[in-house]
Amino acid sequence: MEHRVQIYKADFRGRVESEVFRRYATFNFDEYQEPSRGPLGGLLALNDETLGAGNTIFRHLDAHTSVLVLPLVGGLIFRDSFGHEDTIGTEQIGIFSGGQGNAYQLTNPYKNDLVNYLQIWFKTDKTKTGFSQRSFELDVRNNLVPIFGDKPMLQPNSLGFIGLYDGRQEGTYTLKNRKNGLFVFVINGAFEFDNRLIETRDGLSIVGAQTVEFEALSANAMLLLIEVPLCA
Question: Which intervals hold domain Quercetin 2,3-dioxygenase C-terminal cupin (predicted)?
Fold first, then answer.
């Protein structure tokens, strides 16, 4: 398979903003549609969102989808159309899976503070519905920490990792399935990934590689790494 790399610069993401909500979409989402920003296999969307104090957003699903919610600053109250309600905090993820017509909402519970989080959408099959939650720890630096991949609600073979790195620390990642694609999102700082510079809120996709190497170029650099099937 040909080795292909694409960079998704933060400044060129799709932006939607109101007085209480802001979204930056790395991939095509709602009214943001660009020929070069289609999904990466089963990875449909990666949205960097900020929600104002005390506000709520609502989403309806148009197809069978798994939605992963990853708070970066603050926490959220999650509710879905199945009647589930829970709080998702930092160093936690929530995963909601549903089909066409199912809905969920996210609420900022704080009186004065903004909440920043990622919403990541995966294509999934019709048998997966419901909500699950898990915690992870970033107390061990310079390692990729698994945050999803063993949960049945996510598309089979999708794997996710997060890592917090000191400056000039190096790492490698070997794909579990060479037919999969790899997507990297820089939450904070700067990395050299596959000999390419990516900085805060940039993304990078790699197709056709077996092992990739990277290096953190700044202190407290944080990345999200997703391995996803290309044949969704």
Answer: 166-228
Q: What does 148-166 look like in DSSP terms, one character per residue?
A: ESS-TTSPTT-EEEEEEE-
Domain span holding position 109? 4-229
Q: Per the confidence metrics, is the pTM higher than 0.70?
A: yes
Closest Cα partner for 26 from 18, 191, 193, 34?
A: 34
Question: Quick one: what percent of the chain has pLDDT higher than 70?
Answer: 95
Residue 20 backbone class (left: φ over 0; alpha: ψ -120 to 50; beta: rest):
alpha
Q: What's the chain's average pLDDT? A: 94
Average pLDDT of the segment spanning 55-75: 96
CA angle 142, 91, 221 (to 5 degrees): 35
Query: What is each CA distance from 126 to 45, 115, 231, in whole angstroms?
Result: 19, 31, 16
Residue 52's domain is classified under what CATH number? 2.60.120.10
Tell me the torsion sign for CA atoms 160, 162, 168, 170: negative
The domain tally of the chain equals: 1
Calculate ∠ Cα 113-61-93, nearest 5°: 45
Decide if 177 contacts 168 (C-beta within 8 A). Answer: no
